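Handover notes (outgoing to incoming on-call)

Open items:
1. Mos1 transposase HTH domain-containing protein: sequence verified, structure written out, both below. Nothing else pending on this one.
2. Nothing else urgent.
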Amino acid sequence: MKTVYGEMCISDCAVRKWVRIFKGEDPRETILRDRKRSGRPLSASVTAHRKKVDCMIRANRRVKQKEIANAVGISKERVHHIVTTVLGYRKVSARWVPRQLTVEMKAQRKDICTQLLELSTVFILA
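Mos1 transposase HTH domain-containing protein structure tokens:
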């Protein structure tokens, strides 16, 4: 606008200040937080959906996010959020694997390692 009207043009800052005054707001107050807006609340991450997703993954570790989304009736993005952030799974070799080892998993790993150690000592002695 300055190229058309030159230095007589009103600044963008002044226009914004006038708009705030006409809306009934104090221009000296700076709002740092978002105001409440009408909109759809996040309902896809409710506990019922989390349980359904967890049951589907435990039943079939190779299930796809798209299949879960279609079965539960939520978006793929929400499924991804629930699976990775809330439930703590990750994809390893096309399977969903929990990020944290359970007590049973730790015991199973210990048993397997001790069996492998016993086998290696048998082969070394032979």
